[in-house]
Amino acid sequence: MTSVPAAKVGSDSESEPTVSDRTIQREMAPSGPRRAGRGLSDRILVAFHHACDLRDFEIAEQLLRTLELLVTRRPPEPDADRRRGLENLVAAHERLWQLRHADASHQA
Q1: Total domain count, the chain
Q2: Domain that holds residue 62
Q3: Is residue 51 part of a domain?
Q4: Which of 3, 34, 103, 104 is such that its CA lies 20 to 30 A from the CA of 26?
Q5: Structural domain includes residue 97
């Protein structure tokens, strides 16, 4: 097995881009057409379910509001995944409602 030389992280020389310089350039570069909010809404939905699993309903509710904002705002172009997003939003509301009411019935 051959060893790979470590990447240079910082550099005083302006002629050779460093790892962090390349990362910043890649992240700042325009990335072609994307579906509006799709990746972000999926990540928020995952975070919502994680908060529910941890029974942190306050955070889950905030994430749900953010997800609702993303799903219900008018997209810049017609989006075929909007229905899927709305179905996920409804399912998330149902899960939070069921978890909150299950806690209330156990406390009574």
Answers
A1: 1
A2: 38-107
A3: yes
A4: 3
A5: yes
Alpha helices in 54-81 (DSSP H): 57-72
* 67 CB burial (10 A radius; 0-12, 13-18, 19+): buried
Asked if the structure places residue 8 within a domain, the reply is no
What are the C-alpha distances in Å from 63 to residues 1, 10, 14, 51, 66? Answer: 46, 37, 42, 9, 5
- Dist CA 108 CA 105 (whole Å): 5
Cβ pair 21, 7 in contact under 8 A: no
Question: What's the rounded Cα separation, in Å, for the pair 103 and 97?
Answer: 10
> Mind listing the pLDDT tens digit for each residue in 54-99?
999 999 999 999 999 988 887 666 666 777 888 999 999 999 999 9
What is the signed CA dihedral for 18, 21, 26, 29, rounded to 10 degrees?
-140
Model-wide pTM > 0.85: no
Q: What single DSSP character describes residue 91?
A: H
Q: What is the DSSP string of 11-27?
A: -S-SSS--HHHHHHHHH
Position 75 in a domain: yes
